[in-house]
Amino acid sequence: RFSSYCGTTHAIACSSGTAALHLALKALDIGPGDEVIVPCFTLIVAANTVLLAGATPVLVDVDPATWCMDPAQIAARMTPRTRAIMAVHMYGHPCDMDPILDLAKRHRCFVIEDASEAHGAEYKGRKVGSLGDAGCFSFYGNKIITTGEGGMVVTSQDAVAARARLLRNQAFDEPRFVHRQIGFNYRLTNLQAAIGLAQCEKIKEKVEQKRALAQHYRRLLEGAGELTLPTEAPWAKNVYWMYGVLLRDSFGRSRDDVMRMLRERGVETRAFFHPLHKQPALAGHLGTHVSVDNDRYPVSDDLAARGLYVPSGLNLTPSQIEEVAGKLLACRT
Known about the structure:
Order of helices and strands: HEHEHEEHEEEEEHHHEEEHEHEH
Distance between the termini: 50 Å
Number of helices: 10
Shape: globular
Number of strands: 14
Structural class: alpha/beta
Largest sheet: 7 strands, mixed
Strand content: 15-25%
Strand order of the largest sheet: 1-9-8-5-4-2-3
């Protein structure tokens, strides 16, 4: 059901989005000595799974409009060891995939789509997850489609699918208890799969709910020059997994002060992701290319300092959205 929705030949269910990324990397035989390009502005899972595979994450900054990996900066970060580009569709907006795919083809490396936050998002009319060598989804409790916890690898490459299925289940082969590879216990349970099937029946409805929620926020906030709102590129269908805003200097307060004020007024928010180059756990584990802008990531740093997302759940009512927007605007000086 899910592969049909995404427009791929195969979908391999697994226990989490993290497991899906790790499976995709291992199914593409990425390991020690290899490098994988990942965006600096994303959840740490992208880098963690590359390290779990034994490879090295190499960071690239993001586009200031879409908050996704900036294709123009990737080439400078590539080396003869680059084996894959991990394109993260950030907060529901797709990456600009054509230049990424073209670059990967020229350098003979793979493209893995991290679509954990982007179920139903589209790039030039095609569903995300179907564009690279493998696409990875999360079904965690806060995702558009959820099984409580779970994930999926989608691909149209038979060999990649076969290897992912093998590794997902402890690499059981024939005869059954002779293992020729190191595998993992990454299975999805039958109960979770049943929930996922029921969720798939409503995926179009859920995506449209997300988009309607975002449009309601936009109507309420677009007149506020002190805010930068999420974009939707002409080639994209954004599913607005989280509705994020950036506070401009004219807002008059810091992001952290605004979050504190909103919490005191009954509105819970979340800060944007912390950039990977400043993650203490990754110190010493990232590929370094000091010849490239001294390994600075100004857009990622800026987004992390000024960004927050407001309540974005599917059960929000129009009046609750209006309450959130009003209280956010009331924090201006």
